[in-house]
Amino acid sequence: MISSIKNLSTELSIELELGNVCNFKCSYCFPGANTGDKLWPNVDRLSTALIRYLQTHNRKTRLYLVGGETTLWKDLPEFCKTIKSAHDVIITISTNASKSLRWWNQYGDCFDAVHISLHAEESNVDHIIKVADLLYEKEIETNVDVLISPDNFDECVKLVELVHNSKNKFPIIAKTVLIDGKHNYTDVQLEYMNEPIKRIPNMQWYDKVRRKPRTTVLLDDDTIVYNDNYFALNNLNYFKNWMCHLGVDIARIDHAGNVKGNCGQMVNQNIYTDDRFKIQPVVCEQEICNCSGEMCVTKWRIDGV
User: Fold this and answer.
1) Cα gap 243→76, rounded to integer Å
2) How far apart, in whole angstroms, are the C-alpha atoms of residue 239 and residue 229?
3) H or E element, residue 18
4) Can you tell me the distance from the alpha carbon of 94 to that of 92, in angstroms, rounded to the nearest whole number?
5) Which fold has domain 11-213+248-277?
6) Which of 20, 233, 287, 299 is placed for a possible disulfide with 38 were both Cys, Cβ 3.0 to 4.6 Å?
7) What is the three-state SS of 104-173?
């Protein structure tokens, strides 16, 4: 039984929810992530508030933009340029890549990294390959994350193989689909998921464009973990009453500006209403951890719990 996790990254990681307007309706999507009732923010108000929050931490920041479908926000390119001009930040976008090739050719350079999610229920795999090939040639860190649903497993695996037909050799990653923080994979499916990287990229390209450090987590038994899926697949994502670096090394900022976790736990900060931010770990109140990034953040068991 582990009692501490130390994430070796020195960067602040912020996931920023821009809205929940999406043109896909995937059955396994997070609750409320595609209902369209949280419209896009005012770009000036968000930029001012976020810069103040990031500068309080005073650390190089990895800003991960999520939706909804982020590219549907018309002010997204302007927002990225404003933030990058004010803070040492690497901007990563999560996208279904459904925008046109023309859009990606015009605005792809706004992002340091693009994580393309491929969904068997909705995606056009040929279009995704073209977008990823375009970003590869623009020397933007790019990977295709294939969501592997246990209920549609064989079709999802076929999509992994289809992406191998791309012109360029970018990473292909099999991503877990969790419902209420738990997986429903069979033993055979688990064997496939235990190695998430399904294509190693052209390393000359990858070493040049890479912006995201490899996940490196040190456990208290001196085990080093490199796999984002490790805790969920081994049923180790139970951290209730642990101290957690939520709000210190990693956080999610929701549409209303609240600083919290993907689990919903609040840090009792709001980028729009607070002038000062207290940077300190929190006691986990959640029965189960749902987010791979938060599973891997520094945390430790409280003595006697």
Assistant:
1) 35
2) 16
3) none
4) 7
5) TIM Barrel (3.20.20)
6) 20
7) HHHHHHHCCEEEEEECCCCCCHHHHHHHHHHHHHCCCEEEEEEEECHHHHHHHHHHHHHHCCCCCCCCEE
User: How far is 230 from 245, CA to CA, in rounded Å?
Assistant: 19
What's the mean pLDDT when you consider all of the chain? 93
Task: Give the pLDDT confidence of 190-222 residue by residue, as tens digits.
Answer: 999 999 999 999 999 999 999 877 889 999 989
Please give the average per-residue pLDDT across 245-269, as a whole number: 93
The helix/strand/coil state of 13 is strand
Q: In the chain, what are the domain boundaries?
A: 11-213+248-277
> pLDDT tens across 234-243, in order?
999 999 999 9
Cα(137)–Cα(105) distance, integer angstroms: 10
Please tell me the pTM assigned to this model: 0.86
Bridge-based pairing of strands 299-301 and 282-283 is: unpaired
DSSP 47-104: HHHHHHHHHHHTS-EEEEEESS-GGG-TTHHHHHHHHHHHS-EEEEEEE---S-HHHH
Give CA–CA dist 178/181, Å, rounded: 5
Which residue reads 């999802």 in tokens? 156
